[in-house]
Amino acid sequence: MSTLRRIAVTTVMMAGFSSLASVVHAAEKITIMVGGEDKIIYLPVLLATRLGYFAQQGLDVAVVTEPAGVNAENEMIAGSVQGVAGFYDHTIDLQSKGTEVESVVQFSNVPGEVELVSTTQQEKIGSLIDFQGKSLGVTGLGSSTDFLTQYLASKVGLDRDDYRLVPVDAGKTFISAMRQHLIVAGMTTDPTAVELLSTGEAKVLVDLRTEAGTRDALGDIYPAACIYMPTAWVDAHRDETGRLVKAIVGALRYLHAHSAEQIVDLLPRNYYNGKRTLYVAAMKSFLPMFTSDGRMPAGGQQAVLRVLSAIMPAVKAADIDLSKTYTAAFVESAAKSAK
């Protein structure tokens, strides 16, 4: 896996757990690629690692990172990783291209993204219609930030060739692109957004970090962060998938039972780079957006399909079977185990 950026290789089977009756030995290693490991929206994966939940389930899980979710998707299709912590919308996009993958556990009901505008451009960009002729940042072409940006622009009548999408990843590269005026606006998530907002270098144009903001901008909720995996792999490894989901659901429950400060205390310091107060504030505001049980919200799949159908002819033309894009079997099993 030479193309993978190994940031945290995690949860190798620990000898201390081998004596516990609850531990079941895993048959093989599972590699999960996260579309940006320090993004708050993907926190359940990191927490499951830091809290030892994967090991408690008898799993040998490696977590690797790739800033752009679309690149993580490509690694999964190539067989380099078994699953991706990314956005649910990729399951629909891939099905329209003939590739079947499914979400096995949902993290949140909203994207957690925000469209930022550089304050140097705030007099020129007061609404989405002002994107015409501008360079807009996204994590990657074909990424969920790409999908959402296209949809928002289409709502005000802009065609795809009316603006330029620039792949700038997230974090330092996104911030640098805005500071160097390579982009005048862009879609990103926390902690990238909160850093630019705290310095006054950017302002919010569209906020998809809350349910109210998401409904206002997209017309409905938009279930996003999840773990999706190739359907064939899931079918062949149902036991391992079930235990993986139990670990993630345990992390989701932990998020709802602890304060933002307690959660941040568990994270590597490099995640907030000396800006702990800002990271805690961003965490505190997003915590209510995490699901407590990993379930897909009612109507969520249809809402995402509606958005993608509006901007992707291939999705609109395809006979998308939403039942194949998400399975509740594993979160239901996790709920029974918890009881």
TrEMBL record:
Q: Which GO terms describe its cellular component?
A: periplasmic space
The record's subcellular locations are: Periplasm
The record, for InterPro entries, names: SsuA/THI5
Give one Pfam family, short name only. Answer: NMT1
Instruction: Supply the alphabetized keyword list.
Output: Signal
Gene3D superfamilies registered for this protein in UniProt: Periplasmic binding protein-like II (3.40.190.10)
Q: Which GO terms describe its biological process?
A: alkanesulfonate transmembrane transport
Which first-to-last residue range defines the signal peptide?
Answer: 1-26
The main location class comes to periplasm
The chain positions of domain SsuA/THI5-like read: 43-260
Please report which protein family the annotation says this sequence is part of. Answer: Belongs to the bacterial solute-binding protein SsuA/TauA family.
Q: What is the name listed in the Swiss-Prot or TrEMBL entry for this protein? A: Nitrate ABC transporter substrate-binding protein
